[in-house]
Write a structure and sequence with these properties.
single chain, alpha/beta, Rossmann fold, 7-stranded mixed β-sheet, two-stranded antiparallel ribbon, about 15% strand
Length: about 350
């Protein structure tokens, strides 16, 4: 505490904030240092933008002559720095991008803003707002970013036959991949309407003019979101029919690919419609076997766990009472077409 005498001669106590120096760990490589600099740089610019916006907001609330004294009395920087912050925020708003103050480099497509997952557990706390729209079963765009990073090149062709809210498309656009999207209920203009299964159980893919490098599939995890996907969706099928669909669908995708990858995201089911005597439906294991059965070779299992918040407190309490585990296991199964088939 610092003691001061103010104008009315009253002793006041002013708090001195001590901000400790953070711990610096030596980078292992120059690449590591670059990643850290880029990441901190991004945070720094985001913070500068928010500070600039706040300053402008405060300026509006106060009388003209009150603003400068307010800065001097309350902030750790002066008028000139405040002007820089506000000008920076305005530039960002004008361009719709976070800019570097000098040089106007946008952060779009700067590799440092995307930090690939190095391990085969891809855990994301929330969906990146830039990718996809609010949609039942929306996946984090970061998952697709990592998938594209490891299994595609720029200008590769990526196809999503169950596109939902268009997450795959948005990420492809950001990462310069060509993307074709389909769904039985298109939600956005670039998603083409296509029903994968007719009433007789025949599975047909849309006609493509190019051979995909990667087919990404995020199907309904059987009946888990039956209500949300509506009548006619594969979530309405019996479990047997659902697995038959997966087999036919994987087989059609196999025919479509040349040397490409088939990535399939699937979650185990531990709630709802569990057959009597079973504790879970192991979709990840079952689908993996089915897809291998049509000729694909399983190359990688990437664990993309769900959050514990996926379950309601009532479900958690019920599971505890019944001494059973709830499932957070969701796997991204990456297959490759084996040419010898
Ligand atoms: C899990 S959601 C995909 C979510 C998407 N990955 C996202 O991030 O927004 C599964 C999608 O499969 C679609 N679908 C279900 N049955 C289908 C069918 N028979 N033909 C085509 N699409 C189907 C649903 O309409 C739904 O949009």
């Amino acid at each position: 505490m610092q003691k001061e005498i103010d104008e009315s001669n009253e002793l006041i106590e002013q708090e001195t904030k001590i901000i400790p120096v953070p711990i610096w760990n030596e980078p292992k490589t120059v690449d590591d240092a670059q990643i850290r600099i880029e990441r901190l740089g991004t945070n720094m610019h985001q913070h500068a933008y928010l500070v600039g916006k706040d300053l402008k907001w405060v300026k509006k609330q106060l009388k003209h002559e009150e603003f400068l004294p307010w800065i001097n009395d309350n902030l750790w920087f002066g008028e000139r720095t405040a002007q820089h912050f506000m000008r920076f925020a305005k530039e960002c708003d004008d361009k719709g991008n976070l800019l570097e103050y000098h040089g106007h480099r946008t952060f779009k497509n700067v590799p440092g803003t995307f930090l690939p997952k190095v391990y085969d557990v891809w855990n994301f706390s929330e969906c990146d707002d830039r990718f996809g729209i609010v949609y039942p079963g929306r996946i984090p765009g970061q998952l697709i970013m990592n998938l594209l990073n490891y299994y595609t090149e720029e200008n590769d062709i990526v196809v999503d036959f169950m596109a939902g809210g268009g997450t795959t498309y948005d990420v492809c656009k950001e990462m310069n991949r060509i993307c074709y999207c389909y769904d039985r209920k298109p939600t956005r203009e670039f998603i083409v309407k296509h029903e994968l299964r007719d009433k007789n159980g025949v599975v047909k893919l849309p006609q493509l003019t190019e051979t995909p490098n990667l087919i990404f599939t995020d199907p309904p995890y059987w009946s888990m979101m039956k209500k949300e996907y509506g009548k006619g969706a594969i979530s309405e099928l019996s479990l047997k029919e659902y697995y038959e669909f997966i087999e036919k669908f994987a087989s059609e995708c196999y025919k479509l690919l040349d040397n490409g990858f088939f990535a399939f995201l699937i979650q185990n089911q531990t709630e709802k419609d569990i057959p009597v005597g079973e504790e879970a439906i192991l979709h990840t294991h079952n689908c993996s076997k089915i897809i291998e059965g049509v000729g694909f070779k399983l190359k990688r299992i990437i664990n993309c766990p769900l959050h514990t918040q996926t379950f309601l407190p009532q479900q958690v309490n019920k599971a505890k009472e019944e001494t059973r585990m709830l499932g957070l296991v969701r796997d991204l199964l990456v297959f490759k077409k084996c040419q010898e088939k």
